[in-house]
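[audit] Reproducing an earlier prediction to check determinism. Same input, same settings, fresh worker. If the tokens differ from the archived copy the diff job will pick it up downstream; this log only records the rerun itself.
[audit] input (165 residues):
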Amino acid sequence: MSVKTIYLAGGCFWGMQKFFDQFDGVTGTEVGYANGPDKAPTYQQVCSDSGHAETVRIDHDPDKISLEELLGYFFMVIDPLSVNRQGNDTGIQYRTGIYYTDESQLPQIKAVYQAQEEKAGAKLAVELEPLKNFFPAEEYHQKYLEKNPGGYCHIGERYFHLKDD
């Protein structure tokens, strides 16, 4: 099995992690802070506009779930036109982004991105750029919604049961 990795910022990372954990072929996820200054921030610093985006690292087996499928799911649960906001969460840390580390992924990413832009009929607010840095979030943020089922999430509950369909 060859594992590929993509980094997705889609607002609050608690819900994004729970959402992507449900899919067969996703072999691991980790929440963290990406594409800010090159210094590991604390959650408090991120909430005080450190410049980092709440991001989920997603490892996946491309033979079981393609990058295109992952990105399709990503766009299903974000507002791609919203700037620094998803649901009730506002601030630069809630911006949306697709951050890649493997240049060979760019053609697939751009194809999905362009299709979403055409669907929206407007320029997307989703950053599309190489990953500059990623700092894992504190342990209490990892799998947060599993540990705290009543926690707030901008992603509707119905989206956490897609693999059951």
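[audit] rerun output stored. Observation attached for the diff report: DSSP finds five helices and eight strands in the chain.
[audit] end
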